[in-house]
Amino acid sequence: MVVNMHILGIESSCDDTSVALVEATENGFVVVSEKTSSQIEVHKKYGGVIPEIAGRMHAENIIPVVEEVMKNQNKPDVVAVTSGPGLITGLLVGVETGKTLSNLWNIPLVSVNHIDGHIHSVELKAEKTTIEFPAICLVVSGGHTELLLMTNHNKFELLGKTRDDASGETFDKVAKLIGFEYPGGAKISKEAENGNPKAIDFPRPMIQTGYEFSFAGLKTSALYWLRDNPKFNKQDFCASFETAIVDVLTTKTIRSIKEFNPKTVILAGGVSANKKLRETLGQTINKTNAKLLIPEMKYTMDNAAMIAVAGYYKTIKNNYTDWKTIEADPNWKVYTNNNE
C-alpha cells in the first residue's frame, strides 16, 4: 500500500551538501524541490577530498540549501538524513541539521544508510519504477565497491566487497597518474571511447572466483606500465584500463545472478555513470530473466533525493530514530551479515 507523504532528504556524507523535498505518490516518487552544493572546485587543488575542509563547507552551506529547497513549501511529513557511512565531518553537519528540523517542526526523523540511498536512487524516474525481490545490487563509487543481496527494502546481505581500493577510487588515482585533475574517473571514460580496449593486457584481479574485489594490484600494474612506457596512446591506455575494471565488476555480478536468480539487478553509485559499465552489464543481463535498474545520470552521484526515497520505506514501517538519540556513524554497514 502506498502512503502519500512528503519527505525532506539530507545528504552530506562526502563533499556534496544536498537537500531534496520528495513526494511519495501512487505513481512513484516526485522530486518537488532539490539543491546540491558541490565542493569539487575546492578539493580539486588537493587532488581529493579533505575531510576538515569538507566539514567546514557543509556547515556553511547546509542552512542556505535547506532554505532554498523549502522556500514556499509546507513542512514535510518526515525528515530523512544520511547518518553513515562517510566522512564524520560531513555526517555530523547533516545529522545535527536533521535532528534540529525534526525537533523544530515536531515531525519524525529517520536515519538512512548512504548505500541504501544509492540503491533506492533507481526509483527516481519519470515512470514508476519498483524493485522486485530478491535483488542483486552492485554498488560502485569512490568509497565503496560492494555486491549485495537485497531481500526487501532496507534489508541486505553482503556477498562481497573490495579488500582494498574501491573501483571509483582506482579510476581517480590512475587518472591522476596520467595527468587528469580530480575527479578524473569520468575523464578516463571519455578518453576510452576512442581507444582500443585490447591494446594493453591489464590484470583482472580475483575475477575467477567468489564475490570479493581487489583493485590495488590493477592500480599498481597501471603505475608500472606507465613507468615503462613513457610514450603511450592515452586513449588506448584508458580504454584498456577501464575494460579491466568493467570485466571484473560484470563477471562477478553475473556469477551472483546465476547463484541467486534475482528478479532485479541494481547498478548504483557514482561509477554507475560509467557508459561502458552500463552498456556491458545491460547487454549481459538481457540474456537473463532479471531486469536491470540503473539510476538516471543526475542521481548516480550523491544526492538527497535518494535518501528521501530510502527514508520513505523506513517511514512506512514506523522505523524512526528519536532526534535525541540519533548519531553519525562513519562505519555504518548497510548489511546485517558478517560475510567479510
Number of helices: 10
Largest sheet: number of strands, sense, barrel closure: 5 strands, mixed
**Secondary structure category:** alpha/beta
CATH topology descriptor of the largest domain? Nucleotidyltransferase, domain 5
How many strands in all? 10
Rounded to the nearest angstrom, the radius of gyration is: 20 Å
The count of domains is: 2
Q: Helix and strand succession?
A: EEEHHEHEHEEEHHHHEHEH
Q: What is the H level of CATH, i.e. the homologous superfamily of the largest domain?
A: ATPase, nucleotide binding domain
- CATH architecture level-2 label of the largest domain: 2-Layer Sandwich
Structure write-up:
By secondary structure, the chain is of the alpha/beta class. It folds into two domains: 5-124 and 299-315, 2-Layer Sandwich (Nucleotidyltransferase, domain 5), CATH 3.30.420; 135-294, Nucleotidyltransferase, domain 5, CATH 3.30.420.40. It has helices at residues 40-44, 51-70, 88-105, 114-120, 167-177, 185-192, 216-228, 234-260, 275-285, 304-315; strands at residues 5-11, 16-25, 28-38, 78-84, 109-113, 135-140, 145-152, 155-161, 264-268, 291-293. Strand 2 and strand 3 (28-38) form a beta hairpin. Helix 2 (51-70) runs parallel beside helix 3 (88-105). One of its GO terms (biological process) is tRNA threonylcarbamoyladenosine modification.
Please summarize what this structure is:
It contains 10 helices and 10 strands. By secondary structure, it is an alpha/beta fold.
Helix-strand layout with pairing:
Layout (H helix, E strand, L loop, with lengths): L4 E7 L4 E10 L2 E11 L1 H5 L6 H20 L7 E7 L3 H18 L3 E5 H7 L14 E6 L4 E8 L2 E7 L5 H11 L7 H8 L23 H13 L5 H27 L3 E5 L6 H11 L5 E3 L10 H12 L25
Parallel strand pairs: 1-4, 4-5, 6-9, 9-10
Antiparallel strand pairs: 1-2, 2-3, 6-7, 7-8
Keywords: Acyltransferase, Cytoplasm, Iron, Metal-binding, Transferase, tRNA processing
Protein name: tRNA N6-adenosine threonylcarbamoyltransferase
Pfam families: TsaD
